[in-house]
Design a protein that fits this description.
Blueprint lengths: L1 H19 L25 E7 L6 H9 L7 E8 L5 H11 L6 E6 L8 H14 L7 E5 L3 E3 L3 H12 L3 E7 L5 H17 L2 H4 L13 E4 L1 H6 L12 H10 L4 E11 L6 H9 L2 H4 L4 H24 L4 H22 L10 H20 L5 E2 L2 E2 L3 H8 L3 H11 L1
Parallel strand pairs: 1-2, 1-4, 2-3, 6-8
Antiparallel strand pairs: 4-7, 5-8, 6-7, 9-10
Helix pairs in contact: 1-12, 1-13, 2-3, 10-14, 12-13, 12-14
């Protein structure tokens, strides 16, 4: 009876995900559908803010793609060097000089995050404060990672689409590198799981409560961000992009979609490299709750691990029910594999990939309990004391931070 019960849970889970979760698996929310084809000549200024910590190996290629944007308005770049010790700032200057764009690049030095801040958000706030003090406030601010490469039309497309939609935040999920064996097996699943957690169609619906963003590319209306309290309102968030999405959706429409024209330069050649990426924030996704962790582990087991096991080794009727779940799972995953140019037969191995992500989540929780949560480039950004303090932060304090920003 237990096997039948678990197989039914798995089947209902996949029926729900396929039918009622914003059709996330179909990958229909794409920047080719962003809309807006009006010329951008009327825009006075767009400023890109690029937080960078030890990115000397990729920063020149990333900045070169920004300098090459086919954008008719004024476009300047602020690089916030977050205590790099590998020559990131020097590499950025070389790139600007090589492209005749030294006058368009400003480099700010960061002393590192203040207590209660994550490093990236602290750097982004520093860049945002500088941008707001410019003689002419930009129409848009583009927050982008230092390890991504843009195709030339992307900025114009973003600005045009955001203008047409009246969006206060327009974000793109960049196409992650998918070349090594580890990347080919695990990276498409990362995108699949992200869209399952944050269905893009729901996020893009102004009447739906769901909110989110992808941190690699985020085009923001600066006045809306300032009204929301700036990054001070989310200063301790590890999953900073989705926290920003929730913050900005309270200010107006937001939009999030996939793109094939912005690529990540970050390589994950080994399983351990992908593990570190996921472990950094997986437990934060569960709000550091042991109960949510237990629920997530049960859900992963019932939806991903049990179907192939029961389909191969179970008895009727659990076997047939589990087989249907496995087929639905594979069907839902195939569009993501196609997006990454991989064989759809890999979809039947999704349970094994899900087992890896389940283990990453357990490891993330363990590291948090050991006081080593949120590790990123030598920083532990989610110590237990800090998380506890954030939980008890009052609404008055949040409101005060917003007043300071405005």
């Amino acid at each position: 009876m237990l096997a039948v019960f678990i197989s039914i849970i798995g089947l209902f889970a996949w029926l729900y995900l396929i039918a009622l979760r914003g059709a996330f698996w179909r990958l229909t929310e794409h920047d080719r559908n962003l809309g807006g084809h009006a010329p951008t000549h009327h825009l006075s200024q767009v400023v890109a803010i690029v937080p960078a910590r030890n990115e000397a190996d990729v920063i020149e290629k990333s900045l070169a793609s920004l300098f090459a944007q086919q954008f008719h308005g004024q476009f300047d770049i602020i690089l916030v060097d977050d205590e790099s010790d590998d020559g990131t700032a020097e590499a950025a200057r070389r790139c600007a000089a090589a492209h005749g764009a030294s006058g368009r690049l400003t480099i700010l030095s960061s002393r590192g995050p203040d207590a209660g801040w994550t490093g990236k958000l602290s750097a982004m706030q520093r860049g945002f404060d500088y941008a707001r003090r410019l003689p002419v406030e930009p129409d848009f601010v583009l927050f982008c990672d230092a390890d991504i490469e843009f195709a030339p039309p992307v900025l114009a497309r973003l600005v045009s689409g955001a203008t047409a939609r009246g969006a206060v935040l327009t974000s793109l999920m960049v196409k992650l590198r998918c070349e090594s064996v580890a990347e080919q097996w695990l990276i498409p699943a990362f995108i699949f799981f992200f869209q399952k957690l944050y269905p893009f169609r729901h996020i893009n619906d102004p009447d739906h409560a769901a909110a989110g963003a992808a941190g690699g590319v985020m085009l923001v209306r600066p006045e809306a961000l300032a009204t929301a309290g700036g990054f001070r309102a989310i200063r301790g968030a590890l999953i900073d992009d989705c926290a920003l999405g929730a913050l900005m959706k309270a200010q107006g429409p937001i939009w999030l979609g996939l793109t094939g024209d912005v690529h990540s330069l970050r390589a994950y050649p080994r399983l351990a490299d992908i593990s570190r990426m996921v472990v950094r924030s997986a437990y934060a996704q569960l709000s550091y709750s042991p109960w949510r962790l237990a629920g997530a582990l049960f859900g992963m087991a019932a939806a991903y691990l049990a179907p192939p096991y029961l389909a191969l080794f179970g008895e009727s009727p659990a076997r047939e029910t589990a087989l249907v779940s496995w087929l639905l799972m594979a069907q839902a995953y195939m569009p993501t594999l196609r997006f990454y140019g991989l064989s759809r037969l890999r979809a039947f191995a999704l349970p094994g990939v899900a087992a890896c992500y389940t283990w990453f989540t357990v490891e993330s929780a363990w590291r948090h309990f050991c006081g080593r949560g949120g590790e990123w480039k030598g920083r532990y950004q989610a110590p237990r004391a800090q998380v506890a303090a954030q939980r008890f932060e009052t609404s008055d304090e949040i409101e005060a931070s917003r007043e300071i920003e405005v």
